[in-house]
Amino acid sequence: MQNNKNTLRWWQYGVVYQVYPRSFKDTNRDGIGDLKGVIEKLDYLRELGVQAVWLSPFYPSPMVDFGYDVADYCGVDPMFGSLEDFDTLVKEAHLRGLKIIIDWVPNHTSDQHDWFKESRSSRDNPKRDWYIWRDPAPGGGFPNNWGSVFGGPAWTFDPHTEQYYLHQFVSEQPELNWRNPELRAAMYETLRFWLRRGVDGFRMDVIGMILKDEQLRDNPPNPHANPHAPANDIFGRLLTTYNMDQDDVHSIIREIRAVLDEFDDRCAIGELWGELPRWVRYYGENGNGLHLPFNFRLMWEPWQAEAMRRSVDSLESALPPFAWPNYVLGNHDQPRLASRFGGQPQARLAAMMLLTLRGTPTLYYGDEIGMENGIIPPEKIQDPQGKNLGAERTRDVCRTPMQWDDSPFAGFSSVEPWLPVEAGYASRNIKAQDAEPASMLNLYRRLLQMRQESPALHSGGYEALTVSAENCFVYRRQVQGEIRIAALNFSSETRQVAIPGQKRGTVLLSTNMDRQETVDLGALVLRPFEGVLLAPEA
Ligand code: GLC
Ligand code: CA
Fold first, then answer.
1. Is 367 in the pocket of ligand 1 (CB under 6 A)?
2. Band of the pLDDT at 1, cuts 50, 70, 90?
3. Does the Cβ of 383 fall within 6 Å of ligand 1?
């Protein structure tokens, strides 16, 4: 049967927008974004044209890892508001036809979570086994060779009970033991808590790490490790053979999915880092796993048409028929896409690619106005990764306040925000770009609208077209009766492209937003970094 909006689900035809609540909008003048701020901006998001809003964690937390250290899975940190505010947010979002996806952090809690306080209190506490405790190695020292993503070893010794506990992030993020059935049941209850409140889905943090090798064997050295990495980057020097993507994680993924399936039409998204063959398994057998295992591959590609094409083609051919693709180009852990890909023109082209490929795109707040990496003076570094692994690794650069207007704190707050506002905010802000017809913001709006209105774009097939023009990525999206072609010039020079099998067509949209015309598809001229979306003549 033909794919269309009637047969697709909202997380297939819609676009996901990530909000980092700390940095979106501050309403109570403490320099930190809050849930009321998100509510205030729901109309903006609806008008932008996205379908779902994913919120990074707002749970009670000591904020050592800015909310990814959860002290209570079933609450809201007073810094962000209250449960009542959250309920209002869900209600107001639903009134506008928007879905709410929340972050769920199943791999670890904060060391301030009651569960961990109990677990560490004695070796025979009933919750001891809810975390991963081990004796020192024979002869002393760490139980195995694993490292923390944020630098240093993955083990911390607890003198009170004379054992080590595992943490692959900061030491204040002890890891849960998913082999314990009581822990699993308790975690599933936290999902139900939010599902009952009406959340439409979860983005599951480092879901591929929740289960470790039963014997916790040493990881082998990584032959491709960066030789210039700091000495404490133990994690980066090892392969992830025994700490990620274990075969037996998939039965747990099925259990998690079954909890979501107790409710109508909810969506499971997972943060996953592994290679394609390991990654694709998270869709489950016949689709009983995650709906959308995040696909970050394009984010890590060099700025090169061929690299992008190879990445998309290998993804398309790895997917079983029931699996729905998805693409991510930016999030709260990576440099801003406009900075990573080299500038604003590149960011415009990237937007067209992201929003015209087959599968669900996820947008990161501020990318729609081309926000660039913030400049963070060393003494203002907040992120533990930046503090431990060096200023050039700090994720603060992509977490700066959203730029709403050109007032002193960019309309984010009336007091100094927790991170400095990005340098270009005077022109890179929503208000200015709203008024400028060819702005990045209006390009995003147009792309989102076209994607929504075109069956070929939101549900058609994908096929790469081979062209001889250097550094151009051209593909066809097609559903019965409708064809769209995206022709993307990744080079900084003008290119002439001959689109195979096509004579004439209409340019529906250019990334420069300055042409809508009939063109000869045998000699299509693309300006530097220009992308066009075409409707070929039959
Ligand atoms: C994920 C999050 C990241 C966090 C880490 C630990 O990678 O995206 O922000 O620091 O997990 O929870
Ligand atoms: Ca606030």
1. no
2. very low
3. no
**CA gap 293, 253 in Å, rounded:** 11
Is 223 part of a structural domain of the chain?
A: no
**Residue 131 · residue 212 · CB < 8 Å:** no
For the record, the structure tokens of 135 come out as 């004796």
Same domain, 15 and 44: yes
- The domain containing residue 126 runs over which residues? 114-166
CA of 206 to the centre of ligand 1 (A): 7
* Last residue within a domain, chosen from 423, 446, 469: 446
- Residue 508 and residue 402 share a domain: no
Backbone angles phi and psi of 17, in degrees to 5 = -125, 120
Domain-located, residue 258? no
Atom of ligand 1 nearest to the CA of 105: 12
Which ranges constitute the DSSP H helices of 214-304?
Answer: 249-261, 276-279
Contact 205, 271 (CB under 8 A): yes
Question: Does residue 2 carry a pLDDT above 90?
Answer: no
Asked whether residue 221 is domain-assigned, the answer is no
Do 518 and 425 lie in a common domain?
no
Domain holding 129: CATH number?
3.90.400.10
Closest approach atom of ligand 1 to CA 169: 6
Q: Whose CA is nearest to atom 9 of ligand 1?
A: 333
The reply to whether 203 and 320 lie within a common domain is yes
Whether residue 512 sits in one domain with residue 434? no
Contacts of 4 (CB under 8 A, 6+ apart): 455, 459, 479
Task: Please tell me whether residues 81 and 37 are part of one structural domain.
Answer: yes
CA of 24 to the centre of ligand 1 (A): 18
| Exposure b/e, 147-165, CB count within 10 A at least 16 = b | bbbbbbbbbbeeeebebbb
> Domain count of the chain?
3
Regarding the beta carbon of 209 and ligand 1, being less than 6 Å apart is answered no
* pLDDT category of residue 7 using cuts at 50, 70 and 90: confident
Sign of the alpha-carbon torsion through 99, 104, 110, 114: positive
Task: State residue 137's pLDDT score.
Answer: 97
Is the confidence at residue 437, as pLDDT, over 50? Answer: yes
Residue with CA nearest ligand 1 atom 2: 205
CATH classification at residue 490: 2.60.40.1180
pLDDT for the residue numbered 538: 81
Domain assignment present for 451: no
Ligand 1 centroid – CA 21 distance (Å): 15
Both 303 and 199 in one domain: the answer is yes
- Please tell me if the CB atom of residue 65 comes closer than 6 angstroms to any atom of ligand 1: yes
Ligand 1 atom nearest the C-alpha of 331 is 8
